[in-house]
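[Q] Does anyone have a clean structure-token version of this?
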Amino acid sequence: MLSLLTMKYLHPFAALRHRNFRLFWFGQIISLSGTWMHQTAQGWLVYELTNSPFFLGLAGTAATSPILLFTLAGGVIADRHPKRIIMLTAHIALMSFALILAVLTASGVVTVWHILILAFLIGSVLAFEIPARQSIIIELVGKEDLLNGIALNSTAFHGARMIGPAIAGFVIGSVGMASCFFLNGLSFLAIIAALVKMRFGPVETAPSPKAGIRKSFREIIKYVRHNPTVYTLLISVGIISFFGFPYISFLPVYARDILETGASGLGILMGCAGAGAFTGAVGLALKGNVSRRGIVMAIAGITFSAALLVFSLSRTVWISYAMLFLVGAGAINQIVTANNLLQLTVPDELRGRVMGFFTTMFLGMAPLGNFTVGALAHYIGTQNALLTSASFCLLGTLLILWRKPEIFRL
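[A] Here you go.
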């Protein structure tokens, strides 16, 4: 199936010719913009309440640990039930949690423990929603436009990542943090409406045969262990997630105490990473199907790690902005390329479970990294902790490229 990577060039917006994908894509842009507003405001609120980088790491752990715990089960569910129904149920729950946090914040009774509990609940829902979201794209666009659909989906995610924090920085400074949570709650109406309006034929929505859950787990674990390509791709993503992605949780420290840019600066920092990721995703869509995607993934992993290392040391605002742009571009090129290769490699009946594995490595390793870097920051300072993490990220990436040179041939 990897021969599909050498297909003819696709128009950069080919996936948007499919009605269901258009609904999904525009709904995602609005909903995810609200999600990034929520995340920006949540980090600022935690730091204002606690003045502790440890609690920033703990909040990141609370939000992402359910991904590690439950996403494999979410992949099994995605292979057994209609993905649209899973996503619809999940987004209604997520909207409710955002509005609860908005009310608690607006009433002035919010505590860090409220935030941690709600972050854990949100992460638990996402553990079941993300595998369905990742694996539904092929049902929306078909195999011919799959790579383009994944790239455009990433542009929506990271375009929102660029827009949401910038809006959040303005909203926090002008009307307060509670408004960010309210706006996030309302933004879920866009994706809920899109999912309701989608139309599928019976073949497209038919779930796979319902084998026992234990058998489903054993089947996917055996498949991953005995498929070197899948195993290597997942490990490479896990290294970036554990050592690299925790930087997001500590941006409030850089904005307030290191770069001294305040809440608006936090929005710009997050927006720069989002702009880099958005640019990288657009670049992938414009390139179409290149034949040596393994090389793209390797260069992207090194770029991400090196830029994060420089950012960790920087006390100059414009250098920090530039490095976060490269961090975002490197991350998206590696993650989307790995996602593309996985989805084209795996059989249809295992796609939901493999995407569950992918999500576990992509997002589920982050809670362990958040907790580790947060605890390290408590003792040696945020900059030293992030420098250590970025160094291990770069060394791990180089090590897997050295031990698994077959990546370059993918």
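[Q] Thanks! Anything notable?
[A] The chain is about 80% helix and 0% strand.
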